[in-house]
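Allow me, if you will, to draw on your knowledge of protein folds for a short while. I have a record of one protein: its chain in single-letter code and its fold written as discrete structure tokens. I remain grateful for any guidance, and I place the record below:
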Amino acid sequence: MASLQSGGDAAANGVDADVDGAASPPSAKRPRAGAGAAAITDAEVRAEFAHHDRAVARLTTAPSAAARRRFAEGDFARGDVVLMFLYTYCSIKNSIHAYVARAGATVVEVPLPFPVSSPDAIIAEFRAALAVARDGGRRRVRLAVIDHITAMPTVLIPVKELVAICREEGVDKVFVDAAHAVGQVPVDVRDIGADFYASNLHKWFFCPSAVAFIHTRKDDPVSSKLHHPVVSSEYGNGLPMESAWIGVRDYSAQLVVPDVVDFVNRFDGGVEGIRRRNHDKVVEMGTMLAAAWGTFLGTPPEMCGSMLMVGLPGSLGVGSEDDAVGLRTMLRKQFKVEVPLYYNSKAAAADAPPEMVKDGNGDPVTGYVRISHQVYNVREEYEALRDAVAKLVADGFTCRKLRPPEKEETLA
């Protein structure tokens, strides 16, 4: 309830469309070749996509679909290196292994310190992992995959700074997976400076699933060689045309984007006002939960958008991912509370203060909830979560009670 449940990888259920030209009428089943395969007009796109060059920004179904397109077209070979975060979303990871590692390239993962107290900790880990990837200049880092906002644990990554580091260190290409970014944080793709930037519109921009966009640098020779993974009659006519019609699909998610832009602009301050209020509210609710449970926030407020990690009381004994799943199920069934849970098996950042390691009773904090705030959420929902966890603690509940005997013996 308190967490907005975002759609997953629905890339198989949609189609791309070029962000250019006049709006196609809903009754048109196929765009005219001369019309630029359009879905959104200039006026409609300005509200949220002012920094997105129409020549290089295109609608797609999900960042994972955009990633597969990029990785499949890349010329990777044995000895090449790809850098990505440990917490990169699973479908993006799978795309890397399907198209990149299979060609013999090496994948180096950047450990994300959590809980984290400052962007500097992430930058330090990224530099260290990049040094390992380059191996003293003996290896070529062909691609860096950087999250703008990690999903679980959710952390706002200093993406502009990391892209700049990649440029300094000679990384060939940078792909930013920004699935949660649009509608949650300001997005200026030209300022960020990545070669490829993809973000969903169905997570935080009120669109139905599945619609996203991919932005490529205009001067990038690779972008001109990209093709839609589904070969159709438009193959060879450029990515916008290839993407605009790939067979009998449900195009409604793409066609309603102009209406969503209008809807967002009805709110005070438009999308910027929504972002600001959501951020302030999620921090307020997270602080309320942490105070009630004697715990802490997983990141400082400036490192979150509209999602935030809050530590659970250590006495709950979250000792594995299975424990987290079991506790989430219990909260749903017994208390009618729906919230994603995270088991943290990693050590906190080296610069994390002691109060971001243990709760007020001195118990290590290993479990976290990820709360979110959208315009329709109300305080009572977060209070229901607060009270449910407080009751479990008061009743002496631990996750041991959820484990089968053989699992308990293993963890013991």
